[in-house]
Amino acid sequence: MTGFAQRFLQLAGERSPLCLGLDPSxxxxxxxxxxxxxxxxxxxxxxxxxxxxxxxxxFKPQSAFFERFxxxxxxxxxxxxxxxxEQGGLSIIDCKRGDVAETMKGYAAAMLGPQxxxxxxxxxxxxxxxxxxxxxxxxxAARCGAGVFVVVRSxxxxxxxxxxxxxxxxxxxxxxxxxxxxxxxxxLDGGLGPIGAVIGATIDRDAATTLTRLPRSLILAPGxxxxxxxxxxxxxxxxxxxxxxxxxxxxxxxxHGPDPAALREVIDRFRDQAWxxxxxxxxxxxxxxx
Length: 290
Known about the structure:
Elements (H helix, E strand, L loop, with lengths): L3 H12 L3 E4 L3 H6 L6 H15 L5 E4 L1 H5 L3 H16 L3 E8 L3 H11 L10 E4 L9 H10 L2 E7 L6 H4 L9 H13 L9 E5 L19 E6 L6 H7 L7 E5 L1 H4 L5 H19 L12
Parallel strand pairs: 1-2, 1-8, 2-3, 3-4, 4-5, 5-6, 6-7, 7-8
Helix pairs in contact: 3-5, 3-12, 6-7, 10-12
């Protein structure tokens, strides 16, 4: 069975490593001239996926923006992951679940793999209840060829205080979590394991040293665009890990909708930057105004 990391690397070579964040917020849906309801949500996603087509390797639907519409919104989340699969891309359900082990079994069954309720190729999780509590999700991912991205260093500055807190052994929390991810991936066959890490593109070089502890992981890097980070920041701060990083861009692309042609133009510009980033070259390109 081909795992998530291997599928991503193949698609990154064919399409670029860019990850399009599908964040259908009320603000964006209304800016597109759509009603902020389940029908507007569906149209927003249809246009976004049509515009992106086979230009990006992965899509990251933010579950909260679907959940806010209740059952119809959750139905649209399942529809979106199915459409992504039809287009040959990978879906990362950004739900950041984190609970006791027994509960995590339910989240794994809901989110991961083609036989799950929502059919995600990967999902995001948090480890505040302990890394061991994530085991049902991690083992499910390993078994069905899916991926999991554990939040290690987030793109919001408020997270830094907790992530830099010291454990009893003097190690930073983020570094200890990175070591546990690597220990899980180590015995598995192949180069990169199924468990990746969320490392915000906004981190500084000191925080980026955590990446050296994640040699067997893909890196999901949110924060490009609206949160102030650039793809050149990833190239400069992520070192060798930049070549296995999924830079995630949402609002900086989606604010150019609802015109599919305008969306494609901006996606193509970010796609070229993402390729340059992965190859260690300067990714600075002129973005379209607006």
